[in-house]
Structures are given as structure tokens and as C-alpha cells.
Amino acid sequence: MEGSTQDKIITALKDRYEDQILHIDTPYDFLTVSLKKEKIVEIIQFLYNHPDTKFQYLTTLCGIHYPELNQIAVMYQLHNLVANQRIRLKIYLPAENPVTPTITPIFAGANWLERETYDFFGVIFEGHPNLKRILNVEDMIIFPLRKEFPLEDQRREDKNDTMFGR
């Protein structure tokens, strides 16, 4: 992404939401903005409508667990298909109560992405039209992509590792 294009996006964000910005970085030339969580829906709507940004396509939405910080990040990647520009937005939620508003009124496609993030990380998207498990069994009591859970039970005796090339 050209520096001037990134500058326009950053300027548009700072003009209206400078008090919400925690950090701006460009790893691998991918504009990444970490934000306070309170106005995430308003900021995404702003980026959707603003004439210099027009981020009107949600590429992905997912969770990231940071156990050392006791936080779960929700990461949104937006795309301006006309100008071929992308931005990554991140908010941080406390791991013991990860709650944030849904963005399904802006992007209908967020429905399944939010359900998947709930299913694997336990993030509650307030206002979601049907927030329930999507890939795991409904009576599961854990959120398996949190790093607090082991990948497998090391005490299992019914598993023969030689069958798996170990």
C-alpha cells in the first residue's frame, strides 16, 4: 500500500477517533490499528462510509488468545475492493468476560465469523441474531482455541503413537 494511501486512512481515523487509537503499525506493509473496544462498531461504520476509506468488504474476523496478558483480541480485516486497500483492526477484551457488540448490521457475512469466534474463543457478540456454537458440539463447556487447554491428553493409553509416525 502506498504511503500516501496509508496516510489518508490514518488521517481520516485520527481526525475523528484519535482518542480511540492505541497503536498503529504496518507489519508486512499491512496497516494494523489497535483500538479501544468501546467504539469499534462506530469506527467500522465510519471506515465503511468515509470517502477516503470505503472499507465495504469484511475479509475476516477472528479471535486471538493472549494468555500472558489475560486477554482475547478480536481482529477485523476490512478491504476496499475498488482501491484494493486493506486494514486490520484489533480490539482487546478481558479473557474472563470477552464481550463486544456484533457488526452483523454492517456486514451480514460477520454472522458466521462471529459464531466461529464465539465457538472457539468464547467471545460474546452482543446483539448477534443467533450466537450459538457452529462447529463444536453444543454442550461443550470449553473454548478449544484458547491456549489454556492442552492440545491432547498426554495420559491417554488408547492411542498408539506409532500409527501416526511418532
From TrEMBL:
Which positions fall inside the NADH:ubiquinone oxidoreductase 30kDa subunit domain? 34-154
Q: Which GO terms describe its cellular component?
A: plasma membrane
Q: Which UniProt keywords apply?
A: Cell membrane, Membrane, NAD, Quinone, Translocase, Transport
Q: Which Pfam family, giving just one, matches this sequence?
A: Complex1_30kDa
Enzyme Commission number(s) of this protein: 7.1.1.-
Q: Where in the cell is it found?
A: Cell membrane
- Keyword Transmembrane helix in annotation: no
Membrane topology term: Peripheral membrane protein
What HAMAP family is this protein classified in? NDH1_NuoC
Similarity section: Belongs to the complex I 30 kDa subunit family.
The UniProt subunit note reads as follows: NDH-1 is composed of 14 different subunits. Subunits NuoB, C, D, E, F, and G constitute the peripheral sector of the complex.
Q: This protein is called what?
A: NADH-quinone oxidoreductase subunit C
Q: What organism is this sequence from?
A: Ohtaekwangia koreensis
UniProt lists the gene as nuoC
